[in-house]
Amino acid sequence: MPGPEMKPTERGSGRDGYGRWNILCVSLLLLAAVGCTKQAPEYELIAPVGNHIKIPVDTVNDGKVHFYTYKYNGKNINFFVRTDGEKRLHTHFDACWSCYKYKLGFVVEGDHVRCIACNFEYKLADEFWDFIGACAPIPLRSKVRDGFVEIELEAVQKGERLF
To answer: Could you give the CA distance from residue 32 to residue 34 in angstroms, rounded to a whole number?
Structure first.
């Protein structure tokens, strides 16, 4: 004896559930695509001056960490400026060597910065940050000149692949 008839709106697109399976697969692919194109966060936007990014020393030489975003090719390229225990300024991409693909960067917690992805911490007072495993903030070459922290624009743009 045959089972109850189904109305066309109650049936899947295939006899054994292929319609639901296809919807599930497409949904998962869309979620994966959105996750892979995640944009890095956006901090204070900064624009170049000629071929350099220039940040007034008196705005960053305060013992804190200052995050910036430079927009390039539709991406947020993030970096930060920090003061070490000897009052010297350092610049780093907001990314670590092993975790940059997650686009999470670092967070300031007290007197440390912490990689959000792998939880390794670095003391702000330390002049040099040694590698802990494969995790380490990626240095961004800069110099202090005429009252500004100067970063070559080309160096920042090379960091595009990290974001």
So the answer is: 5
Sketch out the chain's domains with CATH numbers. Answer: 44-162 (2.102.10.10)
* Tens digits of residue pLDDT in 65-112: 999 999 999 999 999 999 999 999 999 999 988 899 999 999 999 999
Where would I find the beta strands (DSSP E) of the chain?
Answer: 44-45, 52-56, 65-72, 75-83, 89-96, 106-109, 112-115, 121-123, 137-139, 143-145, 148-152
Return the number of other C-beta atoms located less than 10 Å from residue 159's C-beta. 20
Q: What's the DSSP call for residue 111?
A: T
Token pair, residue 156, equals 């920042």
Residues 6+ apart with CB under 8 A from 38: 103
